[in-house]
Task: inverse folding
Protein backbone atom coordinates (compact mmCIF):
# COMPACT_ATOMS: atom_id res chain seq x y z
CA UNK A 1 0.00 0.00 0.00
CA UNK A 2 0.98 3.65 -0.43
CA UNK A 3 1.73 5.55 2.77
CA UNK A 4 -0.38 8.65 3.31
CA UNK A 5 1.64 11.86 3.06
CA UNK A 6 1.29 15.30 4.61
CA UNK A 7 2.32 18.37 2.67
CA UNK A 8 4.34 20.99 4.56
CA UNK A 9 4.87 24.53 3.30
CA UNK A 10 7.53 26.60 5.09
CA UNK A 11 7.95 30.38 5.01
CA UNK A 12 11.24 31.74 6.36
CA UNK A 13 13.92 34.35 5.79
CA UNK A 14 16.35 33.46 3.03
CA UNK A 15 19.26 33.92 5.43
CA UNK A 16 17.78 31.21 7.70
CA UNK A 17 17.36 28.61 4.95
CA UNK A 18 20.74 26.90 5.42
CA UNK A 19 20.29 26.49 9.18
CA UNK A 20 16.71 25.27 8.70
CA UNK A 21 17.78 22.60 6.20
CA UNK A 22 20.42 21.35 8.64
CA UNK A 23 17.74 20.95 11.31
CA UNK A 24 15.42 19.18 8.86
CA UNK A 25 18.28 16.88 7.95
CA UNK A 26 18.56 15.85 11.60
CA UNK A 27 14.86 14.88 11.69
CA UNK A 28 15.30 12.60 8.66
CA UNK A 29 11.60 12.35 7.65
CA UNK A 30 10.90 15.36 5.42
CA UNK A 31 11.29 15.05 1.66
CA UNK A 32 12.01 18.60 0.50
CA UNK A 33 11.27 19.41 -3.14
CA UNK A 34 14.69 19.52 -4.69
CA UNK A 35 16.52 18.54 -7.83
CA UNK A 36 17.77 14.95 -7.93
CA UNK A 37 20.73 15.87 -10.19
CA UNK A 38 23.34 18.64 -10.29
CA UNK A 39 21.74 21.83 -11.55
CA UNK A 40 24.63 24.30 -11.72
CA UNK A 41 28.39 24.66 -11.34
CA UNK A 42 28.35 24.59 -7.52
CA UNK A 43 26.18 21.48 -7.18
CA UNK A 44 28.07 19.83 -10.03
CA UNK A 45 31.35 20.40 -8.19
CA UNK A 46 29.92 18.93 -4.97
CA UNK A 47 28.55 15.95 -6.87
CA UNK A 48 31.85 15.22 -8.62
CA UNK A 49 33.79 15.50 -5.34
CA UNK A 50 31.40 13.08 -3.62
CA UNK A 51 31.55 10.64 -6.54
CA UNK A 52 35.35 10.74 -6.55
CA UNK A 53 35.45 9.86 -2.85
CA UNK A 54 32.89 7.05 -3.32
CA UNK A 55 34.94 5.71 -6.24
CA UNK A 56 38.09 5.69 -4.08
CA UNK A 57 36.28 3.89 -1.25
CA UNK A 58 35.05 1.16 -3.60
CA UNK A 59 38.49 0.77 -5.14
CA UNK A 60 40.24 0.48 -1.76
CA UNK A 61 37.64 -1.85 -0.19
CA UNK A 62 37.56 -4.25 -3.14
CA UNK A 63 41.26 -3.89 -4.01
CA UNK A 64 40.06 -3.48 -7.59
CA UNK A 65 43.25 -2.13 -9.12
CA UNK A 66 41.59 -1.76 -12.52
CA UNK A 67 39.55 1.13 -11.08
CA UNK A 68 42.69 2.99 -9.95
CA UNK A 69 43.94 5.37 -12.66
CA UNK A 70 47.58 5.34 -11.51
CA UNK A 71 47.67 1.53 -11.28
CA UNK A 72 45.98 1.20 -14.69
CA UNK A 73 48.49 3.61 -16.27
CA UNK A 74 51.45 1.70 -14.81
CA UNK A 75 49.95 -1.63 -15.95
CA UNK A 76 49.50 -0.28 -19.48
CA UNK A 77 53.12 0.87 -19.58
CA UNK A 78 54.27 -2.51 -18.29
CA UNK A 79 52.31 -4.35 -20.97
CA UNK A 80 53.77 -2.10 -23.68
CA UNK A 81 57.32 -2.53 -22.33
CA UNK A 82 56.99 -6.33 -22.17
CA UNK A 83 55.66 -6.41 -25.73
CA UNK A 84 58.56 -4.18 -26.87
CA UNK A 85 61.09 -6.46 -25.13
CA UNK A 86 59.57 -9.58 -26.69
CA UNK A 87 59.84 -7.98 -30.15
CA UNK A 88 63.31 -6.58 -29.47
CA UNK A 89 64.62 -10.06 -28.63
CA UNK A 90 64.02 -11.07 -32.23
CA UNK A 91 66.10 -8.15 -33.53
CA UNK A 92 68.82 -8.14 -30.96
CA UNK A 93 70.88 -5.14 -29.87
CA UNK A 94 72.26 -2.96 -32.64
CA UNK A 95 75.63 -1.25 -32.37
CA UNK A 96 74.48 2.28 -31.59
CA UNK A 97 77.73 3.82 -32.84
CA UNK A 98 77.61 2.11 -36.22
CA UNK A 99 73.92 2.90 -36.65
CA UNK A 100 74.69 6.55 -35.95
CA UNK A 101 77.54 6.58 -38.51
CA UNK A 102 75.30 5.06 -41.20
CA UNK A 103 72.50 7.53 -40.48
CA UNK A 104 74.98 10.42 -40.59
CA UNK A 105 76.04 9.12 -43.99
CA UNK A 106 72.43 9.41 -45.22
CA UNK A 107 71.27 5.82 -44.81
CA UNK A 108 67.82 4.99 -43.45
CA UNK A 109 66.76 1.80 -41.66
CA UNK A 110 63.31 0.25 -42.18
CA UNK A 111 62.31 -2.72 -39.98
CA UNK A 112 59.76 -5.19 -41.36
CA UNK A 113 58.00 -8.31 -40.10
CA UNK A 114 55.98 -10.49 -42.48
CA UNK A 115 54.51 -14.01 -42.23
CA UNK A 116 56.71 -16.71 -43.71
CA UNK A 117 54.08 -17.54 -46.34
CA UNK A 118 54.13 -13.95 -47.59
CA UNK A 119 57.91 -13.53 -47.61
CA UNK A 120 59.25 -13.43 -51.16
CA UNK A 121 62.87 -14.66 -51.40
CA UNK A 122 63.24 -12.57 -54.56
CA UNK A 123 63.19 -9.48 -52.39
CA UNK A 124 66.71 -10.35 -51.26
CA UNK A 125 67.86 -9.82 -54.86
CA UNK A 126 65.64 -6.82 -55.66
CA UNK A 127 66.16 -4.71 -52.53
CA UNK A 128 68.97 -3.98 -50.06
CA UNK A 129 67.57 -6.32 -47.42
CA UNK A 130 69.28 -8.02 -44.51
CA UNK A 131 67.42 -10.87 -42.85
CA UNK A 132 67.66 -10.62 -39.07
CA UNK A 133 65.49 -13.41 -37.67
CA UNK A 134 63.21 -16.22 -38.80
CA UNK A 135 60.92 -18.47 -36.75
CA UNK A 136 58.01 -20.79 -37.48
CA UNK A 137 55.63 -17.92 -38.29
CA UNK A 138 57.49 -14.72 -39.22
CA UNK A 139 60.53 -13.39 -41.04
CA UNK A 140 62.12 -10.21 -39.74
CA UNK A 141 64.46 -8.16 -41.91
CA UNK A 142 65.90 -4.68 -42.32
CA UNK A 143 65.72 -2.67 -45.53
CA UNK A 144 68.51 -0.08 -45.85
CA UNK A 145 68.24 2.71 -48.34
CA UNK A 146 70.06 5.96 -49.05
CA UNK A 147 67.92 9.05 -48.85
CA UNK A 148 69.72 10.64 -51.83
CA UNK A 149 68.72 7.73 -54.11
CA UNK A 150 65.00 8.05 -53.42
CA UNK A 151 62.54 5.47 -52.09
CA UNK A 152 62.67 1.83 -53.16
CA UNK A 153 58.84 1.72 -53.18
CA UNK A 154 58.88 -1.35 -50.98
CA UNK A 155 55.13 -1.88 -50.23
CA UNK A 156 55.37 -3.59 -46.81
CA UNK A 157 54.29 -1.96 -43.57
CA UNK A 158 57.10 -1.15 -41.15
CA UNK A 159 57.37 -2.73 -37.70
CA UNK A 160 58.04 -0.42 -34.74
CA UNK A 161 61.17 -1.52 -32.92
CA UNK A 162 62.24 -0.05 -29.60
CA UNK A 163 65.33 2.14 -29.75
CA UNK A 164 66.32 1.04 -26.23
CA UNK A 165 68.64 -1.89 -25.74
CA UNK A 166 67.49 -5.19 -24.27
CA UNK A 167 69.08 -4.30 -20.95
CA UNK A 168 67.35 -0.92 -20.90
CA UNK A 169 63.96 -2.49 -21.63
CA UNK A 170 64.51 -5.11 -18.94
CA UNK A 171 65.37 -2.32 -16.51
CA UNK A 172 62.20 -0.42 -17.43
CA UNK A 173 60.08 -3.54 -16.85
CA UNK A 174 61.69 -4.17 -13.48
CA UNK A 175 61.11 -0.55 -12.43
CA UNK A 176 57.45 -0.66 -13.57
CA UNK A 177 56.85 -3.88 -11.63
CA UNK A 178 58.30 -2.29 -8.52
CA UNK A 179 56.08 0.78 -9.01
CA UNK A 180 52.99 -1.41 -9.45
CA UNK A 181 53.83 -3.44 -6.34
CA UNK A 182 54.36 -0.23 -4.40
CA UNK A 183 51.03 1.16 -5.60
CA UNK A 184 49.23 -2.05 -4.58
CA UNK A 185 50.87 -1.97 -1.15
CA UNK A 186 49.89 1.67 -0.79
CA UNK A 187 46.27 0.91 -1.65
CA UNK A 188 46.22 -2.02 0.74
CA UNK A 189 47.55 0.19 3.51
CA UNK A 190 44.87 2.82 2.78
CA UNK A 191 42.11 0.48 3.97
CA UNK A 192 42.48 1.99 7.44
CA UNK A 193 41.54 5.37 5.91
CA UNK A 194 38.13 4.08 4.71
CA UNK A 195 36.11 5.09 7.85
CA UNK A 196 37.38 8.67 7.63
CA UNK A 197 36.71 8.73 3.87
CA UNK A 198 33.15 7.50 4.48
CA UNK A 199 32.58 10.37 6.88
CA UNK A 200 33.93 12.81 4.30
CA UNK A 201 31.66 11.28 1.66
CA UNK A 202 28.61 11.60 3.92
CA UNK A 203 29.44 15.24 4.63
CA UNK A 204 29.78 15.99 0.91
CA UNK A 205 26.41 14.35 0.14
CA UNK A 206 24.75 16.26 2.97
CA UNK A 207 26.19 19.53 1.64
CA UNK A 208 24.88 18.65 -1.81
CA UNK A 209 21.42 17.82 -0.48
CA UNK A 210 21.19 21.10 1.42
CA UNK A 211 22.40 23.08 -1.57
CA UNK A 212 19.94 21.46 -3.95
CA UNK A 213 17.06 21.95 -1.52
CA UNK A 214 17.95 25.61 -1.07
CA UNK A 215 18.54 26.11 -4.78
CA UNK A 216 15.08 24.70 -5.62
CA UNK A 217 13.29 27.01 -3.15
CA UNK A 218 10.76 29.51 -4.48
CA UNK A 219 11.60 33.10 -3.49
CA UNK A 220 9.48 36.21 -3.03
CA UNK A 221 9.54 39.66 -1.38
CA UNK A 222 12.73 40.81 -3.13
CA UNK A 223 14.60 37.60 -2.30
CA UNK A 224 14.18 38.07 1.45
CA UNK A 225 11.57 35.32 1.96
CA UNK A 226 12.04 31.67 1.02
CA UNK A 227 9.17 29.25 0.48
CA UNK A 228 9.98 25.54 0.80
CA UNK A 229 7.61 22.62 0.17
CA UNK A 230 8.14 19.17 1.59
CA UNK A 231 6.34 15.92 2.29
CA UNK A 232 6.47 13.52 5.22
CA UNK A 233 4.50 10.37 6.12
CA UNK A 234 1.31 11.26 7.98
CA UNK A 235 2.22 8.73 10.66
CA UNK A 236 5.17 10.98 11.60
CA UNK A 237 3.05 14.15 11.90
CA UNK A 238 2.98 14.30 15.70
CA UNK A 239 6.73 13.95 16.10
CA UNK A 240 7.53 16.30 13.21
CA UNK A 241 5.09 19.01 14.27
CA UNK A 242 6.36 18.87 17.85
CA UNK A 243 9.90 19.51 16.61
CA UNK A 244 8.80 22.28 14.22
CA UNK A 245 6.75 24.05 16.90
CA UNK A 246 9.83 24.26 19.12
CA UNK A 247 11.77 26.02 16.35
CA UNK A 248 9.23 28.84 15.97
CA UNK A 249 9.09 28.29 12.20
CA UNK A 250 6.03 29.36 10.24
CA UNK A 251 4.58 26.41 8.34
CA UNK A 252 1.33 25.09 6.94
CA UNK A 253 0.49 21.38 6.97
CA UNK A 254 -2.28 19.74 4.99
CA UNK A 255 -3.04 16.28 3.62
CA UNK A 256 -1.19 15.72 0.36
CA UNK A 257 -3.25 15.19 -2.79
CA UNK A 258 -2.44 13.66 -6.16
CA UNK A 259 -2.27 17.17 -7.63
CA UNK A 260 0.68 17.92 -5.31
CA UNK A 261 2.61 14.97 -6.85
CA UNK A 262 4.04 13.88 -3.49
CA UNK A 263 6.80 11.29 -3.26
CA UNK A 264 5.67 7.73 -2.69
CA UNK A 265 6.63 5.51 0.23
CA UNK A 266 5.47 1.90 0.09
CA UNK A 267 4.29 0.10 3.20
CA UNK A 268 3.67 -3.62 2.88
CA UNK A 269 3.73 -6.74 5.03
CA UNK A 270 6.91 -8.78 5.55
CA UNK A 271 6.22 -10.92 2.48
CA UNK A 272 5.39 -8.24 -0.10
CA UNK A 273 8.14 -5.95 1.23
CA UNK A 274 10.74 -8.33 -0.22
CA UNK A 275 9.44 -7.59 -3.73
CA UNK A 276 9.31 -3.79 -3.49
CA UNK A 277 12.68 -3.61 -5.25
CA UNK A 278 11.03 -5.14 -8.35
CA UNK A 279 8.32 -2.48 -8.28
CA UNK A 280 11.05 0.16 -8.08
CA UNK A 281 12.79 -1.33 -11.12
CA UNK A 282 9.73 -0.47 -13.24
CA UNK A 283 8.75 2.75 -11.49
CA UNK A 284 6.93 3.83 -8.34
CA UNK A 285 3.15 4.34 -8.47
CA UNK A 286 1.76 7.86 -8.42
CA UNK A 287 0.13 8.96 -5.20
CA UNK A 288 -3.49 8.06 -6.08
CA UNK A 289 -2.58 4.83 -7.89
CA UNK A 290 -2.68 1.27 -6.60
CA UNK A 291 0.52 -0.16 -5.18
CA UNK A 292 1.14 -3.18 -7.45
CA UNK A 293 3.51 -4.89 -5.00
CA UNK A 294 0.90 -6.98 -3.08
CA UNK A 295 -0.21 -8.52 -6.40
CA UNK A 296 3.27 -8.62 -7.95
CA UNK A 297 4.76 -10.50 -4.99
CA UNK A 298 2.79 -13.79 -5.01
CA UNK A 299 2.62 -13.98 -8.80
CA UNK A 300 6.33 -13.29 -9.32
CA UNK A 301 7.09 -15.95 -6.71
CA UNK A 302 4.77 -18.38 -8.54
CA UNK A 303 6.24 -17.52 -11.96
CA UNK A 304 9.82 -17.82 -10.70
CA UNK A 305 9.06 -21.18 -9.10
CA UNK A 306 7.45 -22.50 -12.28
CA UNK A 307 10.43 -21.41 -14.39
CA UNK A 308 12.93 -23.01 -12.00
CA UNK A 309 10.73 -26.09 -11.71
CA UNK A 310 13.10 -28.11 -9.52
CA UNK A 311 12.74 -28.69 -5.78
CA UNK A 312 16.48 -29.35 -5.44
CA UNK A 313 17.30 -25.94 -6.90
CA UNK A 314 14.89 -24.48 -4.34
CA UNK A 315 17.04 -25.94 -1.57
CA UNK A 316 20.11 -24.36 -3.18
CA UNK A 317 18.39 -20.96 -3.20
CA UNK A 318 17.41 -21.34 0.46
CA UNK A 319 21.01 -22.22 1.34
CA UNK A 320 22.28 -19.25 -0.69
CA UNK A 321 19.86 -16.87 1.05
CA UNK A 322 20.89 -18.07 4.50
CA UNK A 323 24.55 -17.84 3.52
CA UNK A 324 24.06 -14.24 2.37
CA UNK A 325 22.40 -13.49 5.71
CA UNK A 326 24.77 -15.28 8.07
CA UNK A 327 28.23 -15.00 6.50
CA UNK A 328 29.85 -11.55 6.86
CA UNK A 329 31.61 -10.30 3.76
CA UNK A 330 29.85 -12.77 1.46
CA UNK A 331 27.90 -10.87 -1.19
CA UNK A 332 27.20 -12.74 -4.43
CA UNK A 333 26.23 -10.36 -7.25
CA UNK A 334 25.18 -7.70 -4.72
CA UNK A 335 22.36 -9.92 -3.37
CA UNK A 336 23.25 -9.64 0.34
CA UNK A 337 20.64 -6.96 1.03
CA UNK A 338 18.07 -9.13 -0.79
CA UNK A 339 18.74 -12.34 1.17
CA UNK A 340 15.11 -12.53 2.31
CA UNK A 341 13.93 -12.37 -1.30
CA UNK A 342 16.39 -15.08 -2.33
CA UNK A 343 15.27 -17.31 0.54
CA UNK A 344 11.60 -16.71 -0.23
CA UNK A 345 12.13 -17.59 -3.88
CA UNK A 346 13.92 -20.74 -2.73
CA UNK A 347 10.98 -21.82 -0.55
CA UNK A 348 8.55 -21.23 -3.43
CA UNK A 349 10.79 -23.12 -5.86
CA UNK A 350 11.02 -26.09 -3.49
CA UNK A 351 7.24 -26.30 -3.03
CA UNK A 352 6.36 -25.85 -6.71
CA UNK A 353 9.22 -28.18 -7.67
CA UNK A 354 7.65 -30.92 -5.55
CA UNK A 355 4.31 -30.43 -7.32
CA UNK A 356 6.06 -30.46 -10.70
CA UNK A 357 7.77 -33.68 -9.65
CA UNK A 358 11.43 -32.78 -10.18
CA UNK A 359 14.35 -32.91 -7.72
CA UNK A 360 17.79 -32.22 -9.24
CA UNK A 361 16.52 -33.63 -12.54
CA UNK A 362 15.06 -36.76 -10.90
CA UNK A 363 11.43 -37.55 -11.77
CA UNK A 364 9.77 -37.85 -8.35
CA UNK A 365 6.72 -39.48 -9.91
CA UNK A 366 8.85 -42.56 -10.52
CA UNK A 367 10.48 -42.67 -7.06
CA UNK A 368 9.05 -45.45 -4.92
CA UNK A 369 9.45 -43.78 -1.52
CA UNK A 370 7.28 -40.74 -2.42
CA UNK A 371 3.88 -41.03 -0.64
CA UNK A 372 1.03 -41.95 -2.97
CA UNK A 373 -1.02 -38.95 -1.84
CA UNK A 374 1.77 -36.52 -2.76
CA UNK A 375 2.37 -38.34 -6.04
CA UNK A 376 -1.28 -37.80 -6.99
CA UNK A 377 -0.93 -34.05 -6.40
CA UNK A 378 1.95 -33.70 -8.85
CA UNK A 379 1.25 -31.81 -12.09
CA UNK A 380 2.64 -34.66 -14.16
CA UNK A 381 0.92 -36.41 -17.05
CA UNK A 382 -1.65 -35.45 -19.63
CA UNK A 383 -5.08 -33.84 -19.49
CA UNK A 384 -7.74 -33.87 -22.20
CA UNK A 385 -8.80 -30.41 -23.35
CA UNK A 386 -11.15 -30.17 -26.30
CA UNK A 387 -10.41 -33.73 -27.38
CA UNK A 388 -6.62 -33.25 -27.35
CA UNK A 389 -4.11 -34.29 -24.70
CA UNK A 390 -1.84 -31.63 -23.15
CA UNK A 391 0.68 -31.64 -20.32
CA UNK A 392 -0.99 -30.80 -17.02
CA UNK A 393 1.72 -28.25 -16.20
CA UNK A 394 1.20 -26.47 -19.54
CA UNK A 395 -2.54 -26.19 -18.94
CA UNK A 396 -1.80 -24.91 -15.43
CA UNK A 397 0.57 -22.25 -16.82
CA UNK A 398 -2.07 -21.02 -19.31
CA UNK A 399 -4.75 -21.05 -16.59
CA UNK A 400 -2.50 -18.95 -14.35
CA UNK A 401 -1.99 -16.52 -17.23
CA UNK A 402 -5.74 -16.20 -17.85
CA UNK A 403 -6.37 -15.52 -14.16
CA UNK A 404 -3.47 -13.05 -13.99
CA UNK A 405 -4.74 -11.02 -16.95
CA UNK A 406 -8.34 -11.10 -15.72
CA UNK A 407 -7.18 -9.82 -12.34
CA UNK A 408 -5.24 -7.05 -14.11
CA UNK A 409 -8.35 -6.00 -16.05
CA UNK A 410 -10.45 -5.83 -12.88
CA UNK A 411 -7.76 -3.75 -11.15
CA UNK A 412 -7.62 -1.41 -14.17
CA UNK A 413 -11.39 -0.91 -14.11
CA UNK A 414 -11.43 -0.25 -10.36
CA UNK A 415 -8.46 2.12 -10.67
CA UNK A 416 -10.03 4.21 -13.44
CA UNK A 417 -13.33 4.35 -11.54
CA UNK A 418 -11.55 5.46 -8.40
CA UNK A 419 -9.46 8.13 -10.09
CA UNK A 420 -11.71 9.47 -12.87
CA UNK A 421 -15.21 8.24 -12.07
CA UNK A 422 -17.48 5.51 -13.41
CA UNK A 423 -18.20 7.25 -16.72
CA UNK A 424 -14.54 7.12 -17.72
CA UNK A 425 -14.44 3.40 -16.90
CA UNK A 426 -17.60 2.19 -18.70
CA UNK A 427 -15.68 0.71 -21.64
CA UNK A 428 -13.20 -1.01 -19.33
CA UNK A 429 -16.02 -2.47 -17.24
CA UNK A 430 -17.64 -3.68 -20.46
CA UNK A 431 -14.54 -5.70 -21.29
CA UNK A 432 -14.33 -7.00 -17.72
CA UNK A 433 -17.94 -8.19 -17.92
CA UNK A 434 -17.35 -9.80 -21.32
CA UNK A 435 -14.09 -11.59 -20.54
CA UNK A 436 -14.15 -12.19 -16.78
CA UNK A 437 -17.92 -12.62 -16.62
CA UNK A 438 -17.88 -14.87 -19.67
CA UNK A 439 -15.20 -17.11 -18.16
CA UNK A 440 -17.09 -17.33 -14.87
CA UNK A 441 -20.34 -18.28 -16.63
CA UNK A 442 -18.50 -20.84 -18.76
CA UNK A 443 -16.86 -22.36 -15.69
CA UNK A 444 -20.18 -22.58 -13.80
CA UNK A 445 -21.85 -24.13 -16.82
CA UNK A 446 -19.09 -26.72 -17.37
CA UNK A 447 -19.22 -27.73 -13.71
CA UNK A 448 -23.03 -27.91 -14.00
CA UNK A 449 -23.57 -25.37 -11.23
CA UNK A 450 -25.86 -23.55 -13.71
CA UNK A 451 -28.46 -25.47 -15.66
CA UNK A 452 -29.14 -24.80 -19.35
CA UNK A 453 -31.76 -22.10 -18.78
CA UNK A 454 -29.69 -20.24 -16.17
CA UNK A 455 -26.65 -20.42 -18.44
CA UNK A 456 -28.64 -18.98 -21.34
CA UNK A 457 -29.89 -16.08 -19.20
CA UNK A 458 -26.37 -15.42 -17.85
CA UNK A 459 -24.87 -15.42 -21.36
CA UNK A 460 -27.51 -12.97 -22.62
CA UNK A 461 -26.95 -10.69 -19.62
CA UNK A 462 -23.16 -10.74 -20.09
CA UNK A 463 -23.51 -10.09 -23.81
CA UNK A 464 -25.95 -7.19 -23.47
CA UNK A 465 -24.03 -5.44 -20.68
CA UNK A 466 -20.67 -5.82 -22.43
CA UNK A 467 -22.01 -4.59 -25.79
CA UNK A 468 -23.57 -1.54 -24.15
CA UNK A 469 -20.33 -0.75 -22.33
CA UNK A 470 -17.95 -1.42 -25.23
CA UNK A 471 -19.87 -0.10 -28.23
CA UNK A 472 -22.61 2.27 -27.05
CA UNK A 473 -21.59 4.06 -23.84
CA UNK A 474 -17.79 3.77 -24.02
CA UNK A 475 -17.67 7.57 -23.98
CA UNK A 476 -20.98 9.08 -22.83
CA UNK A 477 -22.07 12.19 -24.69
CA UNK A 478 -20.21 11.37 -27.90
CA UNK A 479 -21.82 10.52 -31.24
CA UNK A 480 -22.99 6.85 -31.02
CA UNK A 481 -21.45 6.10 -34.41
CA UNK A 482 -18.07 7.26 -33.15
CA UNK A 483 -18.53 5.10 -30.06
CA UNK A 484 -19.29 2.07 -32.23
CA UNK A 485 -16.21 2.74 -34.36
CA UNK A 486 -14.04 3.11 -31.26
CA UNK A 487 -15.55 -0.11 -29.88
CA UNK A 488 -14.70 -2.00 -33.07
CA UNK A 489 -11.11 -0.77 -32.90
CA UNK A 490 -10.86 -1.78 -29.24
CA UNK A 491 -12.27 -5.18 -30.17
CA UNK A 492 -9.57 -5.69 -32.78
CA UNK A 493 -6.84 -4.68 -30.33
CA UNK A 494 -8.25 -6.87 -27.57
CA UNK A 495 -8.67 -9.89 -29.83
CA UNK A 496 -5.09 -9.75 -31.06
CA UNK A 497 -3.47 -8.49 -27.86
CA UNK A 498 -5.12 -10.77 -25.30
CA UNK A 499 -4.39 -13.92 -27.30
CA UNK A 500 -0.71 -13.04 -27.47
CA UNK A 501 -0.68 -12.11 -23.79
CA UNK A 502 -2.19 -15.44 -22.73
CA UNK A 503 0.15 -17.45 -24.94
CA UNK A 504 3.11 -15.64 -23.36
CA UNK A 505 2.47 -17.56 -20.15
CA UNK A 506 3.37 -20.84 -21.85
CA UNK A 507 6.98 -19.78 -21.26
CA UNK A 508 6.45 -20.74 -17.60
CA UNK A 509 5.86 -24.33 -18.66
CA UNK A 510 8.57 -24.29 -21.34
CA UNK A 511 11.34 -22.98 -19.07
CA UNK A 512 10.50 -25.38 -16.26
CA UNK A 513 10.37 -28.28 -18.72
CA UNK A 514 13.67 -27.30 -20.33
CA UNK A 515 15.43 -26.99 -16.97
CA UNK A 516 14.11 -30.37 -15.81
CA UNK A 517 15.09 -32.09 -19.04
CA UNK A 518 18.56 -30.59 -18.98
CA UNK A 519 19.06 -31.66 -15.36
CA UNK A 520 17.90 -35.19 -16.23
CA UNK A 521 20.28 -35.21 -19.21
CA UNK A 522 23.26 -34.44 -16.95
CA UNK A 523 22.12 -37.19 -14.57
CA UNK A 524 21.89 -39.68 -17.44
CA UNK A 525 25.29 -38.64 -18.76
CA UNK A 526 26.78 -39.16 -15.31
CA UNK A 527 25.15 -42.59 -15.01
CA UNK A 528 26.55 -43.57 -18.41
CA UNK A 529 30.04 -42.72 -17.18
CA UNK A 530 29.43 -44.51 -13.88
CA UNK A 531 28.48 -47.80 -15.51
CA UNK A 532 27.20 -50.94 -13.76
CA UNK A 533 30.19 -51.67 -11.51
CA UNK A 534 31.69 -48.29 -10.65
CA UNK A 535 35.11 -47.96 -9.05
CA UNK A 536 37.38 -45.25 -10.45
CA UNK A 537 34.44 -43.68 -12.32
CA UNK A 538 32.98 -41.94 -9.24
CA UNK A 539 35.07 -38.74 -9.47
CA UNK A 540 34.08 -38.30 -13.12
CA UNK A 541 30.43 -38.96 -12.28
CA UNK A 542 30.49 -36.31 -9.55
CA UNK A 543 32.32 -33.84 -11.82
CA UNK A 544 29.73 -34.21 -14.61
CA UNK A 545 26.75 -33.99 -12.26
CA UNK A 546 28.06 -31.05 -10.20
CA UNK A 547 29.23 -28.94 -13.16
CA UNK A 548 26.11 -29.81 -15.18
CA UNK A 549 23.67 -28.87 -12.42
CA UNK A 550 25.68 -25.73 -11.59
CA UNK A 551 25.34 -24.55 -15.19
CA UNK A 552 21.67 -25.53 -15.32
CA UNK A 553 21.01 -23.77 -12.00
CA UNK A 554 22.67 -20.55 -13.22
CA UNK A 555 20.76 -20.57 -16.53
CA UNK A 556 17.49 -21.41 -14.77
CA UNK A 557 17.94 -18.50 -12.35
CA UNK A 558 18.57 -16.12 -15.25
CA UNK A 559 15.48 -17.30 -17.12
CA UNK A 560 13.38 -17.36 -13.96
CA UNK A 561 14.24 -13.71 -13.33
CA UNK A 562 13.91 -12.27 -16.83
CA UNK A 563 10.74 -13.98 -18.04
CA UNK A 564 8.54 -13.50 -14.93
CA UNK A 565 9.69 -9.90 -14.90
CA UNK A 566 8.55 -9.57 -18.51
CA UNK A 567 5.17 -11.17 -17.75
CA UNK A 568 4.75 -8.67 -14.91
CA UNK A 569 6.05 -5.55 -16.63
CA UNK A 570 4.43 -6.19 -20.03
CA UNK A 571 1.38 -8.46 -19.79
CA UNK A 572 0.20 -7.55 -16.28
CA UNK A 573 1.09 -3.86 -16.04
CA UNK A 574 -0.25 -3.21 -19.56
CA UNK A 575 -3.63 -4.80 -18.81
CA UNK A 576 -3.86 -3.26 -15.33
CA UNK A 577 -3.14 0.27 -16.59
CA UNK A 578 -0.17 0.70 -14.26
CA UNK A 579 2.20 3.48 -15.40
CA UNK A 580 4.79 3.71 -12.62
CA UNK A 581 5.55 7.43 -12.97
CA UNK A 582 5.71 8.28 -9.27
CA UNK A 583 8.69 9.65 -7.33
CA UNK A 584 10.41 7.62 -4.63
CA UNK A 585 10.31 9.03 -1.09
CA UNK A 586 13.81 10.33 -0.28
CA UNK A 587 13.86 12.37 2.91
CA UNK A 588 16.61 14.83 3.73
CA UNK A 589 18.68 12.88 6.24
CA UNK A 590 22.07 12.52 7.87
CA UNK A 591 22.05 8.75 7.34
CA UNK A 592 24.03 8.45 4.13
CA UNK A 593 24.53 4.96 2.72
CA UNK A 594 27.30 4.22 0.24
CA UNK A 595 25.84 2.09 -2.54
CA UNK A 596 28.18 0.30 -4.93
CA UNK A 597 27.33 0.77 -8.56
Result:
Amino acid sequence: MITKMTKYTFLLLSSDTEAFLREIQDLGVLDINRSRKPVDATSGKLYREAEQIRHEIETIEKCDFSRDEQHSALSAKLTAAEAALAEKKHWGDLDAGKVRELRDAGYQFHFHTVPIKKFNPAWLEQYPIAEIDRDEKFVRFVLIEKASEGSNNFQVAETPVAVESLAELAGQISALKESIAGREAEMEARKQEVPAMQQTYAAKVQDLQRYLAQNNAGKAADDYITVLTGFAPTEDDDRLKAELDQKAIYYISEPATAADNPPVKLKNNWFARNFETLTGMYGMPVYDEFDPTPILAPFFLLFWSFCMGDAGYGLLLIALGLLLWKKPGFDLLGLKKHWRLVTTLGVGTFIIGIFLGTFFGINLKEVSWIPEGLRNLMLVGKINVGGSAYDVSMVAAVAIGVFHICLAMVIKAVGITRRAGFKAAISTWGWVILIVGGLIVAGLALTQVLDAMATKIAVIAVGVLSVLGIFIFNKPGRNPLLNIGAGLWDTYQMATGLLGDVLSYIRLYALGLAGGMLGAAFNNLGMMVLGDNPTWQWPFFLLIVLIGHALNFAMSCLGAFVHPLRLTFVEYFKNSGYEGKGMDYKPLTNEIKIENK
Notes: The mean pLDDT is 84. The radius of gyration is 36 Å. Residues 80 and 356 are 57 Å apart (CA to CA).
